[in-house]
Amino acid sequence: MAPPRALDGAGVRALEPADGGHELHVDRRRGGSAALDLCYVGSGRFDGFWEMKLKPWDVAAGALIVIEAGGVLSDFSGNAFNIYGQETLASNRLIHREMVGIVSAVASEPRVD
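Above: the chain sequence. Below: its structure as tokens.
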């Protein structure tokens, strides 16, 4: 399958396979608080979350909630999560590999502003 392509250059609102295969829809919702979004992943309200350039105080508590709930965090390449890193990707663990593949493919695309 060809890598997915971003439909919105400013922020990924939706992704779809370039080859016309099965439909894949990613709804990107932002409430304004990364900590709350991470808690939603931990509680099961969200399946996953990703964001760039967060500060440690934005992710520390929420990351702990995700981990304690059995979820997983990493950077966009699937490497170990670091609260001082520039990339945060969190999931319910079940979809993490797929999220890494999608987000890393989209994040590596050149931005069109």
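The radius of gyration is 14 Å.
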